[in-house]
């Protein structure tokens, strides 16, 4: 091959390599490093600050902290957060980077962290939350609203089927008040276990609900995962041999009184 042809081929190859290098990078973006470090230190407020503005609008800081703490209770604290340090990342468009999170009492979960480029350079993190995060946030929010007496807010967390079962927010509100009259005010919710039913697209959260008059009552909250955002499909209390919906319909409260006597 003539020398001139070799020079042209070399220049062309060099341009291709340069273009490919310009399109992708194999470094680990600093926000991911900071996020992983914060998770391993269980510094969730700092981890939250690394998330994109869009993610922070979707998940408020209190919800993020509650969700991460709920995961810690159910699956143990995070012991390792790692990523492929040489994963190719586009320099001018969104990218997905594999991220592995290991908890003390749960197998490693692999996530895809979505990175969005900033206009002034650098990256911001979006879509990095663990699969059970949102069901647990819904569960803890539902319990918090009930504890605080914000029954209208609790009603809004019900799925369409859940709301239909009470006919109206007023009936739901009245049933909660009547239930509290018998069981007492809800004091605490203690998360105990989680079960995923992929066939029915639900996540069931087993917990203990502690009431002023009745003490701790085993309970289960079923989260509907098919709706636009996870919602409470149903809540059950297990008292003696009975499995009763919560709030308990007025016509079934007499059964509770008979059970407790």
Description:
This protein is of the alpha+beta class. It folds into 2 domains: 3-130, Nuclear Transport Factor 2, Chain: A, CATH 3.10.450.100; 135-260, Nuclear Transport Factor 2, Chain: A (Roll). It has 10 helices and 11 strands. It has helices at 3-23, 30-40, 44-49, 53-58, 61-75, 133-147, 151-156, 160-164, 169-183, 253-260; strands spanning 24-25, 78-83, 89-90, 95-103, 106-117, 123-126, 186-197, 202-211, 215-224, 231-239, 242-245. Helix 5 (61-75) packs across helix 6 (133-147). The radius of gyration is 25 Å and the shape is elongated. The termini are far apart. Mean pLDDT is 83; it is low at 3-26.
Write the layout of secondary structure elements.
Layout: H1 3-23, E1 24-25, H2 30-40, H3 44-49, H4 53-58, H5 61-75, E2 78-83, E3 89-90, E4 95-103, E5 106-117, E6 123-126, H6 133-147, H7 151-156, H8 160-164, H9 169-183, E7 186-197, E8 202-211, E9 215-224, E10 231-239, E11 242-245, H10 253-260
Antiparallel strand pairs: 1-3, 2-4, 4-5, 5-6, 7-8, 8-9, 9-10, 10-11
Helix/strand-derived category reads alpha+beta
Adjacency order of strands in the biggest sheet: 7-8-9-10-11
The proportion of residues forming helix, as a percent range, comes to 40-55%
- Helix count, DSSP H or I runs of 4 or more residues: 10
What is the averaged pLDDT score? Answer: 83
User: How much is the radius of gyration in Å?
Assistant: 25 Å
Strand residues, percent: 25-35%
Low-confidence stretches: 3-26
Tertiary shape: elongated
């Amino acid at each position: 091959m003539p020398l001139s042809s070799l020079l042209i081929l070399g220049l062309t190859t060099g341009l291709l390599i340069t273009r490919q290098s310009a399109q992708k990078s194999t470094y680990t973006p600093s926000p991911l490093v900071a996020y992983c470090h914060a998770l391993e230190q269980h510094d969730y407020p700092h981890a939250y600050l690394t998330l994109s503005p869009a993610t922070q609008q979707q998940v408020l800081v209190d919800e993020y902290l509650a969700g991460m703490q709920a995961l810690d209770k159910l699956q143990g604290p995070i012991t390792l957060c790692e990523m492929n340090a040489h994963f190719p990342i586009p320099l001018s468009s969104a990218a997905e980077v594999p991220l592995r999170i290991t908890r003390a009492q749960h197998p490693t979960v692999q996530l895809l962290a979505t990175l969005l480029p900033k206009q002034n350079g650098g990256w911001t993190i979006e879509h990095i939350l663990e699969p059970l995060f949102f069901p647990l946030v819904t569960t803890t929010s539902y319990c918090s609203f009930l504890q605080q007496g914000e029954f209208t807010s609790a009603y809004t967390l019900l799925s369409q089927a859940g709301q239909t079962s009470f006919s109206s927010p007023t009936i739901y509100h009245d049933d909660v008040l009547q239930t509290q009259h018998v069981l007492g005010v809800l004091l605490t919710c203690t998360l105990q276990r989680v079960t995923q039913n992929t066939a029915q697209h639900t996540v069931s959260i087993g917990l203990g609900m502690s009431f002023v008059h009745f003490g701790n009552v085993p309970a289960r909250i079923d989260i509907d995962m098919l709706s636009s955002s996870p919602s409470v499909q149903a809540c059950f209390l297990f008292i003696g041999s009975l499995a009763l919906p919560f709030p308990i319909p007025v016509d079934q409260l007499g059964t509770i009184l008979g059970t407790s006597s």
